[in-house]
Structure formats: structure tokens, C-alpha cells
């Protein structure tokens, strides 16, 4: 074999450089291919995430639609419940719905959904109370209220009318408030109340043409008792001291010649001798006067000087005035003295006297045999007195002898008219 040429055994320099470049290009392509594979995997994950987001968005959209449908159903049910509630409030009661006051000495009433923590019936103070009818039918009362608001061009403000009985002398009126602010609601309530009081309205209901209507805010029994106590004590003090010597504060205070004379058992210590104020049912309201302070204040004009409570309880009542509602309670006096004052109170009520500050935004009182029996069952009274059980007191007999049947009928008629006033 012929020998190989030495020129073919040696690789050229440029060939080595070309090989190096080709090797670099191959490595670069491999790296790019690897990067493309990684990018492809990332892109696949991104696409999977997008698909998951789409599924989640569809699920959220479906849930939102379901919640919106459920909310619409709840609104519909709420409107139906509200309509049913209004119908129930306007419907005739299936039982006595009159507020029941806990008698003196009785245990406190347990709470229920119809009563608050103090045992008082829940009251919507943004409502109004309209009264003055004489046992008018429910539909006549509702018609008159609508006519009142039409006369004021305020019918859009009338939301609902609640008449508690088939025939009633008063009703509650719910206004339509467009503002949730309590002060704006109070302002609107006050404005409507002022216009109602200022207008002259004649009922079109049969037999109600001469009715005199009164209007007030819907208040709790506790609030009404406070207002009544303030007005009663203020009137009593003004009667003997004059207007200039008497001041009042609607928080529950009355001053006579600079001395605070009205107290409450929850805030003030009850002295031995007190003149307790009672409501229309004859139950204590918690407000009272100090008898000795009363004698000292009013004694400046010589009306109650040297009055001894135990022996002259009826005289103290006469000095206080026929219009003053209350009874004298003394922890050390005999029971008969208490009953004497209660008899005097009932006698004055039967005689047709009108109570100062009497608020008919509550049940009308009835001084019947049951009320007398309740008074006789108070703490310290061992049994019901025979005089109250079998015969009228001498004062009542004397009153009956002085008034014939016609005069008594006229007195009761006038009393009914006065009770119908605010």
C-alpha cells in the first residue's frame, strides 16, 4: 500500500474552529429546546389555571344567582309577614289585650316577648295616639283618622291605624318615616302632632258628630305616670302658692318655693308619712309626696296647719283638693285610716270630678267591687271589711239621697264627656 500523505494526517486549524462552533450551536439548540419544553409545561399549567378560574367564576355566578333568588324570596316572605302582622294588629283581639298593672304588693311579672325588662308592655314611641270617640266602631275610627290626614293634606304620611277593640275610644297611628335618623323622625312626629292639635275636625261617623278629639305621643305607662304626677303636684302647689312659686322639670321634679316636693321610691327614700300617687286603676305609680313637707310648704297660707295625719286624714284629702289623685299611707297608722282616704277618693270619682292630668291613653278605670276588694287585700289588711262587702259607705248613701235618678244620669253623662277629653 502506498504511504499516506503527511498533509492528510494533520487537521487544518479552521476545521477545528468549525467543529467548535458546530458544537456550540448544538449545545445552544439543546438548551433552547429544553427551555421551550419548560415554557410549554408552564403554559400548560397557566392554561389549567385559567380553566380552573373559569369553572370557579361559573360557580360563583351560580351561587350569586341562587343567593339573589333566596334574597328575593326572603323579601317576599317578609312582606307577607308584615302584612299578616298588620292584619293581626287590626283584627279583633282573641283575649283581653288591655295593659295589666301589677297590684301593690304583688310579685313582679315575668318577662315575655310582649313585655320589656321592667314588665311593661313594649310601646313604639314614634306612634301617635288619637282619642275622643265614644265607643266607635273600628271601621269608623279608621275612616275618621284617614279623613283627619286628608284634611291636613298629609295622607301619604299615614302608614297604619291600629284599633285595639271592636269598639274603641282611641287608636294608635303609625306614621311613614322616610329618614332613618331618630331626630328627623321626632321632628316629623312633632310637626304632625301640632297640626293635628291645631285643626278642627268633625267626625262623620254616626253618633260621633260632637266628639272632641285629643292627640298625643304614644307613651309607656311609666312615662304617663311621670307626666301625670308632675302635672298633679304642680297644679296642687299652684293652687295654694301661686304660679310664681312653682317650677317643674319634665324629668320628674317639682319645686315649691325652691324646695323639691315630688319624689319617686326608686330614687328617694320613702319617709314614714307619704301621700302616694296612684294611677287610674288605683295602683301605686311610685311617685309620692312627703306629708310633713306638704304641710310645711302649703301651711304658709294657713290651709294645712296643725293637721294630724292619723286623726284627720280626710281633712288632708280635702286640703289637697278633689282633683288630686292619691291616698295617704302611713306605716304606723291603723288600716281604717287608709280605707277612709280610699273611700273619699272613690266618692269624689263617683261625684263626677275630673282628674288633673288624667291621660286616657290607657284603660278607663272602674271603681267597682273588685277594685275595692283589691284595696282591702293590701299588705297589713287581714280581711275584707264587712262595711265594704255588704253596704255602701255613709258618704255614698248621703250622696245617693241628695241626687235623684235624673240628676245622677246627667252627672254620669257629663262625666263621660269629660273623660273623653285629652
What is the secondary structure topology, with strand pairs?
Elements: H1 6-9, H2 13-90, E1 128-137, H3 138-151, E2 158-162, E3 167-175, H4 182-198, E4 214-217, H5 221-241, E5 246-249, E6 253-256, E7 259-260, E8 263-264, E9 273-278, E10 284-290, H6 291-298, H7 313-320, E11 327-330, H8 335-350, H9 369-376, H10 386-390, H11 394-402, H12 405-419
Region (Disordered): 86-121
Outline of the structure:
Helices cover 48% and strands 14% of the residues.
Q: How would you describe this structure to a colleague?
A:
By secondary structure, the chain is α+β, with helices and mostly antiparallel strands. Among the domains are: 128-217, no CATH class; 221-419, no CATH class. Helix content is 48%, strand content 14%. It is built from twelve helices and eleven strands. The protein has helices at residues 6-9, 13-90, 138-151, 182-198, 221-241, 291-298, 313-320, 335-350, 369-376, 386-390, 394-402, 405-419, and strands at 128-137, 158-162, 167-175, 214-217, 246-249, 253-256, 259-260, 263-264, 273-278, 284-290, 327-330. It has a four-stranded antiparallel beta sheet. Strands 8-10-9-11 form a four-stranded antiparallel beta sheet. Strand 6 and strand 7 (259-260) form a beta hairpin.
